Automatic annotation (TrEMBL):
Its main location: nucleus. This is WRKY domain-containing protein. Residues 45-57 have a biased composition (Low complexity). Residues 41-80 are annotated as: Disordered.
Length: 189
DNA sequence: CGGCTTTGACCAGCGC
DNA sequence: GCGCTGGTCAAAGCCG
């Protein structure tokens, strides 16, 4: 199931969302995927607040990684899609419209967190992509969203995704040079 | 009536 | 080996 398949269409929609005033991307975590190297979790913070610790509910990478150990704990990707991406977003809304249709299938209170974790599956037939949503335990104004898997279809609402255009964005994020606040100039509407 | 959410139960992996 | 915890299932209820 490898190949030049859509790595994560949500990235595109998400990037558009963080351009909106009510959304503010804080952390971008590549937890698993078709990457070279042996890292299991990679943390990208877009702000100098990162170096200031968690004064703003913003955990340093070390802490973020530790928190992500929950996500990686099972170490198995039942959906077999091999791609997991986590975002931490400052948002009032718990469920963000990323262009896909999600069906809630579970809710679980997590240890060490006052906020429950919600589990969603993509509503599209045959699509095994899952999504976990929970509020940050340190600062409930932040929402942790974890996508697992790759959509085998396009967004039912709008399709902005273009793999060739997406590549440089991912590279920019990986190198810390991507500014989520910047206009989505790579879109050609 | 169909689709979605809710919620408790069950299952499986991991750490001790 | 056992207990804990996270993830999933499935039945029931709700809503459009």
């Amino acid at each position: 199931m490898n190949g030049p398949q859509d790595p994560n269409p949500n990235n595109t929609r998400f990037e558009e969302m963080v351009d909106l005033p009510e959304f503010q991307l804080s952390d971008y975590l590549l937890l698993e995927g078709d990457f070279e190297g042996d890292f299991s979790a990679k943390t990208m913070a877009n702000s100098e607040e990162n170096s200031a610790g968690s004064s703003n509910g913003f955990a340093p990478p070390e802490a973020s990684e530790r928190r992500n150990s929950n996500i990686c704990k099972r170490g198995k990707n039942k959906s077999g899609t091999g791609m997991r991406v986590a975002f931490r977003t400052k948002s009032e809304l718990e469920v963000m419209d990323d262009g896909f249709k999600w069906r809630k299938y579970g809710k679980k209170s997590v240890k060490n967190s006052p906020n429950p974790r919600n589990y969603y599956k993509c509503s599209s037939r045959g699509c095994l992509v899952k999504k976990r949503v929970e509020r940050d335990r340190d600062d409930s104004s932040y929402v942790m969203t974890t996508y697992e898997g790759v959509h085998n279809h396009e967004s039912p609402s709008l399709v902005y995704y273009n793999y060739k255009q997406m590549g440089p964005v991912v590279d920019a994020v990986a190198s810390g040079g991507w500014d989520p606040q910047a206009p989505p100039s790579h879109y050609s509407s």
